[in-house]
Amino acid sequence: MVTQVTSLARSGLADFLIQRLSAVVLALYTLCLLSFFAANDGLDHVQLAAFFGSASMRAFSVLAVLSTAAHGWIGLWTVGTDYLRPHYFGAQAAVFRMVFQVGCGLLLFIYVWWGIRLFWMLPGPA
User: Fold this and answer.
1) What pLDDT, on the 0 to 100 scale, is given for residue 121?
2) Rg of the chain over all Cα atoms, to the nearest angstrom
3) Closest by Cα among 79, 77, 61, 78 to 25
4) Could you tell me if 79 and 97 are in contact, meaning their C-beta atoms sit under 8 angstroms apart?
5) What is the tally of structural domains in the chain?
6) pLDDT given at position 10
């Protein structure tokens, strides 16, 4: 029986649940956007800015960005650990895997930072 689903230790069940939850959030976000665009035939910039400018849509958008990052991290971590192995890359597999995972983590951090900045209109670097 699994009892540590909410612990900070890596577990396959926790990864499974995070991927499924993030997929549900992304599906709901997609349905929200599709229904908005289907219901508003002649959109102009003012309507679109008002829709994405509302606090609830900003929060939902940031949740979608975080869900994408979590979903992507687990998927990329799985790919890295499954395919960057000594069987394929020899003795340097651990180095390749570390570079891959650090690169993925950095890209996902930039994606989340950019998404939060975009939706909350935070000032960028000078």
Assistant:
1) 76
2) 19
3) 61
4) no
5) 1
6) 66
